[in-house]
Amino acid sequence: MEDIIEIRSHAKRNVIVTTLIGLLLLCVSVTMLVTMPKTIYLVGIFLLSASIIAFLIAWVKYREPQFSFLLSKSSICYQHKNGKWVLPWDNIQRVDVPHVSSGLERKSLHMVAIKVKDYAPLLENMSPRLMSNILMEQRPLLFHNMPSASSENCSSGSCYSDELLEDDIYKDAQGKIYKGITAMFANRMTKLRQRLGYDLYIPVSELDRSEHEFVTLLKQCQQQVIYPTN
To answer: Would residue 80 count as lying in a domain?
Structure first.
């Protein structure tokens, strides 16, 4: 295994290309607004709006970390503009592509899922901003494999909104109590483990390869770290 394997997300790609497209649209729109007849004034306004959108997209891409994942000999590190989490290889119980039931079929999600052995190191080193971001992004996952009780007697629709809320107190297996956003994140991981079998979920947009290829890479790295060959 290399000292560090760097993974660049799809979201970080094409920053320069997007900026150049914005500049091109800006030049064309300004030229049309200044020199062209008023009959095509709206076209110039449309192109000017498109150039602003292109610049905004380029700015969002630029703010993303250069690498979304750093795989070292000790741990896997996920980097996000709102923070990061670090998970030692020996604290990972299982890595795979999650599946959900769809009628009589099982459908794979375009994500990578990780089952964690001990929540404490993760909870104590992740920033609240990143926890909040993940809680928002993972909301759609809550509607997979919902208990049948949640879908009965729900004419008001409140049972579905309740599924999106997490308790702000969490007690781990060692008796330590967490509160606030940290507790909500721990309760969310617990709920998703019950539904889908895993705690952390990584969208394929954060990767530079398919979810299946990334799972294979993580398994190979963990295998080499835990069972090194001479």
So the answer is: no
Locate 197 and state its tokens.
């079998």
For residue range 30-63, what is the model confidence (pLDDT) as tens digits? 887 777 777 777 887 888 888 888 888 777 767 7
Give alpha helix (H) positions in the chain. 15-35, 41-63, 119-123, 128-137, 148-151, 158-163, 180-196, 211-226
Residues in Cβ contact with 96 at an 8 Å cutoff, skipping those fewer than 6 apart: 112, 113, 198, 215
Find how far residue 156's CA is from the centre of its chain: 31
Look at the block and give the residue holding tokens 């970080």: 12
DSSP, res 139: G
- Enter the pTM of the model: 0.73
Task: Domain of residue 48: give its range.
Answer: 4-63
Please report the sign of the dihedral spanned by the C-alpha atoms of residue 30, residue 31, residue 37, residue 43.
negative
**One domain for residues 132 and 173:** yes
8-state DSSP, 187: H
Q: Which two tokens stand for residue 32?
A: 């049309």
